[in-house]
Amino acid sequence: MTAVEKGKVMDENDIRRALIRIAHEILESNKGTEGLYLIGIRNRGDSLAHRLAALIEEIEGVKIPVGILDITLYRDDFTTLGTQPVVHETKIPFDVNGKTVVLVDDVLFTGRTIRAALDEIIDFGRPKSMQLAVLVDRGHRELPIRADYVGKNVPTSNSETVDVMLKEVDGKDAVILKELRE
After folding, report:
1. pLDDT attached to residue 178
2. E strand or H helix at 175, and its extent?
3. What is the pTM of this model?
4. Nearest Cα to 89, choosing from 59, 120, 64?
5. In 3-state terms, what secondary structure has residue 37?
6. Which is it for the CA torsion 172, 175, 179, 182, positive or negative?
Protein backbone atom coordinates (compact mmCIF):
# COMPACT_ATOMS: atom_id res chain seq x y z
CA MET A 1 0.00 0.00 0.00
CA THR A 2 1.36 3.41 -0.93
CA ALA A 3 0.41 6.89 0.23
CA VAL A 4 -0.23 9.32 -2.60
CA GLU A 5 -0.22 13.05 -1.84
CA LYS A 6 -3.60 14.67 -2.48
CA GLY A 7 -2.64 18.18 -1.47
CA LYS A 8 -1.28 20.59 1.08
CA VAL A 9 -3.80 21.39 3.82
CA MET A 10 -1.68 23.93 5.69
CA ASP A 11 1.56 25.73 4.85
CA GLU A 12 4.07 27.40 7.16
CA ASN A 13 1.98 30.58 7.52
CA ASP A 14 -1.23 28.62 8.15
CA ILE A 15 0.49 26.64 10.94
CA ARG A 16 1.93 29.83 12.47
CA ARG A 17 -1.45 31.59 12.42
CA ALA A 18 -3.21 28.53 13.90
CA LEU A 19 -0.69 28.32 16.76
CA ILE A 20 -1.02 32.07 17.48
CA ARG A 21 -4.81 31.63 17.66
CA ILE A 22 -4.52 28.57 19.91
CA ALA A 23 -2.09 30.43 22.23
CA HIS A 24 -4.62 33.27 22.59
CA GLU A 25 -7.47 30.79 23.15
CA ILE A 26 -5.50 28.99 25.88
CA LEU A 27 -4.79 32.30 27.63
CA GLU A 28 -8.38 33.47 27.31
CA SER A 29 -9.89 30.18 28.48
CA ASN A 30 -7.55 29.96 31.48
CA LYS A 31 -7.65 33.70 32.24
CA GLY A 32 -3.86 33.96 32.00
CA THR A 33 -0.92 31.73 32.84
CA GLU A 34 -1.36 31.01 36.56
CA GLY A 35 -0.81 27.28 37.17
CA LEU A 36 -0.63 26.60 33.42
CA TYR A 37 1.69 23.89 32.05
CA LEU A 38 2.10 22.41 28.58
CA ILE A 39 2.95 18.78 27.83
CA GLY A 40 3.66 17.71 24.25
CA ILE A 41 3.37 14.16 22.96
CA ARG A 42 6.49 12.97 21.11
CA ASN A 43 7.36 13.40 18.20
CA ARG A 44 5.65 16.49 16.94
CA GLY A 45 3.40 17.43 19.85
CA ASP A 46 6.47 18.34 21.90
CA SER A 47 7.67 20.72 19.15
CA LEU A 48 4.22 22.30 18.99
CA ALA A 49 4.13 22.62 22.80
CA HIS A 50 7.44 24.50 22.74
CA ARG A 51 6.15 26.79 19.98
CA LEU A 52 2.95 27.49 21.96
CA ALA A 53 5.00 28.22 25.10
CA ALA A 54 7.14 30.70 23.12
CA LEU A 55 4.01 32.39 21.72
CA ILE A 56 2.43 32.61 25.18
CA GLU A 57 5.68 34.14 26.48
CA GLU A 58 5.58 36.71 23.64
CA ILE A 59 1.97 37.58 24.45
CA GLU A 60 2.02 37.52 28.27
CA GLY A 61 5.72 37.86 29.08
CA VAL A 62 5.52 34.71 31.20
CA LYS A 63 7.53 31.55 30.57
CA ILE A 64 5.31 28.42 30.64
CA PRO A 65 6.94 25.12 31.69
CA VAL A 66 6.88 22.45 28.98
CA GLY A 67 7.04 18.70 29.45
CA ILE A 68 7.54 15.93 26.90
CA LEU A 69 5.57 12.71 26.97
CA ASP A 70 6.43 9.40 25.31
CA ILE A 71 3.30 7.25 25.34
CA THR A 72 4.79 4.11 23.79
CA LEU A 73 4.40 1.97 26.93
CA TYR A 74 0.84 3.26 27.52
CA ARG A 75 -0.53 2.39 24.06
CA ASP A 76 -3.33 -0.19 24.02
CA ASP A 77 -1.69 -1.80 20.98
CA PHE A 78 1.76 -2.01 22.60
CA THR A 79 1.92 -5.78 22.24
CA THR A 80 1.26 -5.55 18.50
CA LEU A 81 3.82 -2.82 17.72
CA GLY A 82 6.46 -5.25 16.57
CA THR A 83 9.51 -6.88 18.01
CA GLN A 84 11.28 -3.90 19.58
CA PRO A 85 9.22 -0.70 19.89
CA VAL A 86 11.44 2.34 20.47
CA VAL A 87 10.73 3.97 23.83
CA HIS A 88 11.97 7.52 24.41
CA GLU A 89 12.26 9.43 27.64
CA THR A 90 9.31 11.22 29.21
CA LYS A 91 10.41 14.54 30.71
CA ILE A 92 7.96 16.28 33.00
CA PRO A 93 10.19 18.59 35.06
CA PHE A 94 7.36 19.94 37.23
CA ASP A 95 4.72 18.71 39.65
CA VAL A 96 1.38 18.28 37.84
CA ASN A 97 -0.67 18.07 41.06
CA GLY A 98 -3.24 20.85 41.18
CA LYS A 99 -2.05 22.38 37.89
CA THR A 100 -3.82 23.03 34.61
CA VAL A 101 -2.13 20.85 32.01
CA VAL A 102 -2.61 21.49 28.31
CA LEU A 103 -1.74 18.34 26.41
CA VAL A 104 -0.47 19.11 22.89
CA ASP A 105 -0.39 16.82 19.85
CA ASP A 106 -0.15 17.24 16.09
CA VAL A 107 -3.13 15.16 14.87
CA LEU A 108 -6.23 13.98 16.71
CA PHE A 109 -7.57 10.82 15.07
CA THR A 110 -9.12 7.90 16.99
CA GLY A 111 -8.38 9.34 20.44
CA ARG A 112 -6.32 6.32 21.54
CA THR A 113 -3.05 8.29 21.66
CA ILE A 114 -4.69 10.91 23.86
CA ARG A 115 -6.14 8.22 26.16
CA ALA A 116 -2.65 6.77 26.56
CA ALA A 117 -1.24 10.24 27.28
CA LEU A 118 -3.93 10.93 29.91
CA ASP A 119 -3.13 7.63 31.62
CA GLU A 120 0.58 8.47 31.72
CA ILE A 121 0.06 12.00 33.06
CA ILE A 122 -2.19 10.66 35.83
CA ASP A 123 0.67 8.37 36.85
CA PHE A 124 2.63 11.58 37.58
CA GLY A 125 -0.10 13.10 39.76
CA ARG A 126 -3.56 14.63 39.82
CA PRO A 127 -3.80 17.82 37.73
CA LYS A 128 -6.58 20.29 38.53
CA SER A 129 -7.67 19.98 34.92
CA MET A 130 -6.38 18.72 31.60
CA GLN A 131 -7.10 20.32 28.25
CA LEU A 132 -6.20 19.20 24.75
CA ALA A 133 -4.69 21.29 21.94
CA VAL A 134 -4.13 19.76 18.50
CA LEU A 135 -2.95 21.23 15.23
CA VAL A 136 -5.27 19.02 13.14
CA ASP A 137 -8.48 17.16 14.03
CA ARG A 138 -9.15 14.61 11.28
CA GLY A 139 -12.16 12.89 12.86
CA HIS A 140 -12.81 9.12 13.13
CA ARG A 141 -12.88 9.05 16.94
CA GLU A 142 -13.06 5.63 18.62
CA LEU A 143 -13.12 7.07 22.15
CA PRO A 144 -15.13 9.97 23.63
CA ILE A 145 -12.27 12.48 23.41
CA ARG A 146 -12.58 16.03 22.08
CA ALA A 147 -9.96 18.75 21.67
CA ASP A 148 -10.39 22.06 23.49
CA TYR A 149 -8.21 23.88 20.94
CA VAL A 150 -7.98 22.91 17.25
CA GLY A 151 -5.78 24.51 14.61
CA LYS A 152 -7.77 23.09 11.70
CA ASN A 153 -10.49 20.49 11.25
CA VAL A 154 -9.69 18.27 8.27
CA PRO A 155 -12.51 15.79 7.59
CA THR A 156 -10.94 12.67 6.11
CA SER A 157 -12.02 9.30 4.77
CA ASN A 158 -10.66 6.06 6.18
CA SER A 159 -8.38 5.77 3.14
CA GLU A 160 -6.72 9.12 3.81
CA THR A 161 -3.93 10.15 6.18
CA VAL A 162 -2.75 13.52 7.45
CA ASP A 163 0.99 14.10 7.75
CA VAL A 164 2.19 17.01 9.86
CA MET A 165 5.72 18.11 9.07
CA LEU A 166 7.53 20.51 11.38
CA LYS A 167 10.90 22.24 10.95
CA GLU A 168 12.22 20.75 14.20
CA VAL A 169 11.62 17.18 12.98
CA ASP A 170 11.20 17.32 9.18
CA GLY A 171 13.03 20.48 8.12
CA LYS A 172 9.85 22.26 6.95
CA ASP A 173 6.36 23.18 8.12
CA ALA A 174 3.41 21.71 6.23
CA VAL A 175 0.30 19.58 6.69
CA ILE A 176 -0.23 17.15 3.81
CA LEU A 177 -3.32 15.07 3.02
CA LYS A 178 -2.48 11.69 1.51
CA GLU A 179 -4.56 8.81 0.15
CA LEU A 180 -3.61 5.20 0.74
CA ARG A 181 -3.75 3.14 -2.46
CA GLU A 182 -3.06 -0.52 -3.19
Report:
1. 96
2. strand 174-181
3. 0.93
4. 120
5. strand
6. positive
